[in-house]
Amino acid sequence: MTMKPSRMLLHSVMLTSALGCQAATLKNGDVLYFTATAGSVVAGGASPLLFDSAPVDALNGLIIGTAQPSYPDIDKSWTTTGSLFSITGNHRTTSPVKVTGPDTLDFSGWVMVVGNQDYAFGQTQSVATYTYDGTHFTLSYTWQDSDNGGNPLGNLGLRYYTLYLSGTVIPAPVPIPATVWLFGSGLFGLLLATSGRKVTKSR
Q: Average pLDDT for residues 62-72, to the nearest whole number?
């Protein structure tokens, strides 16, 4: 039984779609675009019960698998409010944030920048956790002085820092496999040949 060209074309589209389907998992090149309206916040202070906080909005977002050492880049500048201090800061990474498990990220390069001083939390606490449903994500990260041998960090004497990001994922471009292009080219050629034979017969 010969398949009609229209059915062959439909079959090709369905095959291409099937090849392009992927599971909902973060991958290199994905951009985590977070917003304050989605609940994104940064906080720091003396303890989990005594801290100042600030809402956080993405500038370019956090790119999985790519170091972002400059600032502002990941987030817009934010300013904390509370009873301890008022600081304005940003975040940067000295090494790429990478997926290490179904719900964990390598955060070893995570840095908070206040003024000209780096607070390199990732050097002593390198694990962040995340959720991802294929569209929306959440990311949670906490550092405490116990991760630093009981010692506070930086001129601010921070003993506690936490980050919560929430928003949408801008997926990395998915390259179309070469086999799909070859299959499509072959099908197109077959359709042209079939059309040519029909025109010749009609004459």
A: 98
Give the per-residue pLDDT at 16: 38
SS3 201: helix
Average pLDDT, the chain: 84
Question: 34-62 b/e with 16+ CB inside 10 Å = b?
Answer: bebebebbbbbbbeeeebbbbbbbbeebb
Q: What are the tokens at 125?
A: 């606490």
- Which residue in 93, 114, 113, 117 sits closest to 105, CA to CA? 93
The pLDDT, as a whole number, for residue 85 is 87
Decide: residue 6, CB within 10 A, 0-12 exposed, 13-18 middle, 19+ buried: exposed
Q: Pseudo-torsion of CA 65, 44, 124, 31, nearest 10°? A: 0
Write down the pTM of the prediction.
0.77
Count the Cβ atoms, other than its own, within 10 Å of residue 192. Answer: 11
Q: For 176-191, write each residue's pLDDT tens digit.
A: 665 544 555 555 555 5
Q: Is the torsion defined by CA of 77, 67, 61, 47 positive or negative?
A: negative
- 8 Å CB contact between 78 and 113: no
Query: For 8-27, what is the mean pLDDT?
Result: 50
| 31-34 and 62-63 strand pairing | antiparallel
Number of helices (H) and strands (E) in the chain: give both, helices first: 2, 13
